[in-house]
Predict the structure.
Amino acid sequence: MPRAATNADVFNAIAESRRRDILVFLAIDERPVGDIVAAVNLAQPSVSKHLKVLYDVGLVTVRREGRQAFYRTNLQAIRPLHEWTSTFERFWRHQLTRVAERAEASHKKGKETP
């Protein structure tokens, strides 16, 4: 089965690590394309393609000022991603607690042995 287009949904859009890097960079503040290029160390045409994908699925917003475009992460659009991944966060937190409990029990057992 062929993979869905990157602009089909947010999950496909964020499958590319550079797009995730761009989202993180833009989460703090609105930035022009030149700043994004410098931050992610990619050529401007590549950054523009990634921004288009992110824009098409609604993960970034754009504001134009003259010839310059300013991008920002659309935090509302990321909410469904956060909610979905939080299911797994709870699972891993539980797993890490179990690992810590086993490590502590093993450590105590090691201290008891002369």
The mean pLDDT is 86. The CA atoms of residues 32 and 70 lie 4 Å apart.
